[in-house]
Amino acid sequence: MKYPITPDGRYFVHRERLWRCTNPNLDEETRQRLVSELMTARREVAAARRSSDDNALAAARKKVHAAKIALGERGPTWWDDDRDYNRYLIKNTPYADWWSSRASSR
């Protein structure tokens, strides 16, 4: 499924909420490696939940977090300013007008 992306390419929109996009400045090989690490870590989270292993769950969540930071989806912003609207409802951000004009054009 393709989610709408803000005009500046910083976020995609899912259920009226902004989510940070992956840093487009990453080379494809690095991006693929990090996505692979993220998916492996997410599988480890699921396995730890199934086994009710709190230590393994904490370790797996740390790996997910590290991969997301490396991808630019968390942590310091990969753009010029530090304003970050990750997880904000779009209506509460500077993207609200863009979003409403997009919705009214459909």
Could you report the average pLDDT, rounded to the nearest whole number? 95
Strand order of the largest sheet: 1-2
The total strand number stands at 2
Share of residues in strands: 5-15%
Could you estimate the helical fraction of the residues in percent?
40-55%
- Tell me, what's the shape? globular
The number of domains: 2
What are the secondary-structure elements, in order, as H or E?
EEHHH
Low-confidence region ranges: none
Number of helices: 3
Radius of gyration from CA coordinates: 16 Å
Distance between the termini: 18 Å
The helix-and-strand class reads mainly alpha
Characterize the structure shown.
The structure is a single chain. The chain is mainly alpha-helical and 106 residues long. It has 2 domains: 1-21 and 81-106, no CATH class; 25-72, no CATH class. The protein contains 3 helices and 2 strands, in the order ββααα. A two-stranded antiparallel ribbon has the order 1-2. The radius of gyration is 16 Å and the shape is globular.
